[in-house]
Amino acid sequence: MPGQLLARGVCRHLASHGFAVIEEFVPDRGLRVDVMGLGPKGELWVVECKSSRADFTSDAKWDGYLDWCDRFFWAVDEGFPTELLPQGSGLIIADGYDAEILRMGPETKLAPARRKKTIQKFATHAARRLQALRDPGVRVSWA
Amino acid sequence: MPGQLLARGVCRHLASHGFAVIEEFVPDRGLRVDVMGLGPKGELWVVECKSSRADFTSDAKWDGYLDWCDRFFWAVDEGFPTELLPQGSGLIIADGYDAEILRMGPETKLAPARRKKTIQKFATHAARRLQALRDPGVRVSWA
Questions:
Q1: A61-101: per-residue pLDDT in tens?
Q2: InterPro entries from the entry (chains A, B) (predicted)?
Q3: Among A20, A129, A135, whose Cβ lies nearest the Cβ of B11?
Q4: Do B119 and A119 touch (CB under 8 A)?
């Protein structure tokens, strides 16, 4: 199943737990996470969606994502060979309609300054995308 | 000119200055601001859009908005009798396509805890609206 569909199911599931979510979030130069979730207490969760073995093995930079979240998860469909995934990471089984958390990612709390900066970036990103959808006449600066 | 059109022009203008913006933001129970802008340094600006004298005089709670922003502005169209507006507030002249800041609102900095809470609420609000637009199948909790 394509990663974007998995991401949709993941986003629905996280939303049902009170998280706000955005897709394809860039926490830092050169990094793009599939799903970033912001929880009611300011928790930041990253979910990487992997559609296939090849999709997983070609991603060399996933451990860089760990520095930008309190918990990290892989999301895959039920046919994915989960033994490939690093032991101990969070695991979500998803389809295009919903998802289920099978294993929580271990918690490694962000430093307060990074959390603050990342939540502000999340806010900016979400608002700019929303404005671009609502008002096609706007010129949004993505800097 | 209807307030929603003024808000669109205001949002375009603020976006051109690097602000992220959302409309009809609820910073606290019972309060709804027309435009909330989040600046590159975490500044929070509130803009109230007034379409007419009646629209202005019927708004009894605008001074409550001052507690939720670093700067406050009125936005009106060029035909509005600006002498009605409180002296010293920020003033923006807008139409549906753009806007111009005629007078900056005085700065009264938010306390750090309130800024943090408000930016998180801004992030959540923007992401939920974006998700609702992108995925009509989602059940978003607005709690």
A1: 788 899 999 999 999 999 999 999 998 899 999 999 999 99
A2: MmcB-like, Restrct_endonuc-II-like
A3: A135
A4: yes
| Cα–Cα distance measured from residue B70 to residue B50, given in angstroms and rounded to the nearest whole number | 20
Give this complex's ipTM. 0.92
Burial of A43 (0-12, 13-18, 19+ CB in 10 A): middle
| DSSP H helix total and E strand total for chain B | 4, 6
The contacts of residue B72 (CB under 8 Å, 6+ apart) are B45, B46, B47, B48, B65, B66, B89, B90, B105
Residue B26 Cα to chain centre, angstroms: 10
CATH 1.10.60, applies to B2-109: no
Q: Which of B16, B18, B123 sits opposite A123 (nearest CB)?
A: B123
pLDDT tens, B57-96? 888 778 889 999 999 999 999 999 999 999 889 999 999 9
Q: Return residues 79-98 of A near B (CB < 8 Å).
A: 97
CA distances in angstroms from A31 to A16, A103, A140, listed in the order given: 27, 24, 21
Domain residue ranges in chain B: 2-109
Query: Are the beta carbons of A18 and B143 closer than 8 angstroms?
Result: yes
The encoded tokens of residue A59 equal 């991603």
Helix, strand, coil share of chain A (percent; to 5): 35, 25, 35
Confidence (pTM)? 0.93
CA distance B4 to B23: 9
Residue A141's pLDDT is what?
Answer: 59
Asked if A15 and B139 count as a contact pair (C-beta separation under 8 A), the reply is yes
Please check whether residue A123 touches B, CB under 8 A: yes
